[in-house]
Every structure is written in C-alpha cells, then in structure tokens.
Amino acid sequence: MFELPPLKYAFNALEPVIDAMTMEIHHDKHHGAYVANLNKALESAPDLQSKSIEWILRNIQQVPENIRTAVRNNGGGHYNHTLFWDWIAPGGSKTPSGALAQEINATFSSFDSFVEQFSNAAITRFGSGWAWLVVNGQKKLQVLSTANQDSPLMDGQTPILGLDVWEHAYYLKYQNRRPEYVKNFWSIVNWDFVNSLYQAAKG
Fold it and tell me: Which of 55, 64, 103, 121 can pair with 131 through a Cys bridge, CB separation 3.0 to 4.6 Å?
C-alpha cells in the first residue's frame, strides 16, 4: 500500500508564492486522491504492490493493460508530487552549485538560459502537465515537458527538477496567469534537493 507522505513544512510556508489554501488542497486532496486511486488500481495486481513506484513507472508497459492507464495517471501523480513537495521548500539553496551548476552552464550556456528554456517548457505545455529538468539516457541534462501526470521515468529518464502546471497547482492565486506562477516558482526552488537527485542520477 502506498501512502501520502506528510508535507515537511506548513501550508503557508511558501507564501506569497503559493498560498496556504492551494497547498492544503493540492497536497491533501489531489495528491491524496492519486494515492488512493493507485492503491485501488493495484488491488488486482498483488505482485506489483511490493514494487517501488519508481520501478512501476520505469516498467509501465509491464503493468497489466486493464489497469495500466489508472496506474500511469495515479502512480505518476503520486511520484511527481512526492518529489514536488521537496523541490519547492522554504530555506534551501536558491541556486545550483558544484557539478550540477557546471553541467547546467555547459549544457544550456548559462543558468539564465536554462531558466528561460525550462520556463518556456512550462508556459507552453498545452493543458495539464509538467516541465522537467532530467538526466537522460546519455547521462546528459535535458529540458522537456510531459502531459497529464506522465513521468520522465516512463521514457527512461530521471527527473531532477519538475514544475506542476496543472491548473490546480496555481489557479486560486494566479487564475490564468501561468507565466507569473512560473516566474515566481524560481524563488522557492530547493536546489539542495535538486543537487542530491542529480548526484544520484549520475551514479
């Protein structure tokens, strides 16, 4: 059985960027529903219940076809949000450092250029989805976006930073002003966590 991980900070800890009501609804209701629906879908696949969510998503084609869509949507939602609550956090380093900073500069020419590419991926994602910084199959950094709750894990990539651009993530405060939400996101990124994921992905 998968469980909803507790939020490690208060609902209002990210104000004014993200308001307390959005955080509470997003974590308790939306993420909670993904966990409940994932567990329900896996009731008919007991052999998968002992697998990690990372394994399930990386091997999504091995999930029985009759529950694959439910597991894709809700398993992706659970995994993506579990990381998201650590990507956005009070405190934490506000810029990348060390090997990650060097790799961002080498790949995107500068940190500002990376921010522009990532922000554009988030702003131009049509409908609901995510923007990502991933370590791809060649162990290189790459910016991309996915629809709905799809995870880069499904394509053999490892996400090290993601931004939720579903309307439920920002609509109470920003309404249709997604670009403003994306711009403000950069002030609450926890680069310490991003760096830890980068180090793990590079192995």
Answer: 121
